[in-house]
C-alpha cells in the first residue's frame, strides 16, 4: 500500500511573493472600481425613473383636477361644454407632451 504524504505548499521566492500580492491587490482594486461604476450607473437610472414618475404623477393629478373643473363649469353653463372640452383636450395634450419631453430629456 502507499503511504500518505503531507501536502507541502511550494515556497515562493520573495520577488514572486511580492508580484503575486501586487497582482491580487490590483485585481481586488479593479473589482471595487467596477462595482462602484455599476452602482453609480444604477443610482443615476433610479433618479431618472423617479423624475419621470414624479412628472407623470403631477400630470395625472393636474389633469384630473382640470377635468373636474371642466365638468363643474359645463354643469353651470351647458352651452359652454363644447368649448370647455376643447380647452381641456388641448391642455391634456400639452401636459402629455411635457411628460414625453421629460422622458426624452432624461435619456
Short description:
Helices cover 82% and strands 0% of the residues. With 107 residues, the chain is mainly alpha-helical.
Please write out the topology.
Elements: H1 14-76, H2 81-105
Helix pairs in contact: 1-2
Structure explained in plain terms:
By secondary structure, the chain is mainly α. The chain has one domain. Helix content is 82%, strand content 0%. It contains two helices and no strands. The longest helix has 63 residues, at 14-76. The protein is rod-shaped. It starts with 13 loop residues before the first helix and ends with a helix.
Binned strand content: under 5%
Low-confidence sequence ranges: none
Mean pLDDT: 92
Number of DSSP-assigned strands: 0
Order of helices and strands: HH
Largest sheet composition? none
Radius of gyration: 33 Å
Shape: rod-shaped
First and last CA, distance: 71 Å
Query: How helical, in percent, are the residues?
Result: over 70%
Can you count the helices? 2
- How many distinct domains? 1
- Helix/strand/pairing category: mainly alpha
Q: What are the main properties of this structure?
A:
107 residues, 82% helix, mainly alpha, 2 helices, rod-shaped, single chain
Amino acid at each position: 500500500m502507499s503511504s500518505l504524504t503531507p501536502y507541502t505548499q511550494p515556497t515562493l521566492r520573495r520577488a514572486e511573493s511580492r508580484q503575486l500580492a501586487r497582482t491580487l491587490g490590483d485585481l481586488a482594486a479593479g473589482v471595487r472600481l467596477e462595482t462602484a461604476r455599476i452602482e453609480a450607473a444604477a443610482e443615476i437610472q433610479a433618479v431618472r425613473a423617479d423624475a419621470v414618475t414624479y412628472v407623470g404623477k403631477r400630470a395625472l393629478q393636474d389633469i384630473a383636477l382640470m377635468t373636474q373643473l371642466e365638468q363643474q363649469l359645463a354643469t353651470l353653463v351647458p352651452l359652454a361644454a363644447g368649448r370647455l372640452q376643447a380647452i381641456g383636450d388641448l391642455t391634456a395634450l400639452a401636459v402629455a407632451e411635457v411628460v414625453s419631453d421629460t422622458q426624452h430629456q432624461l435619456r
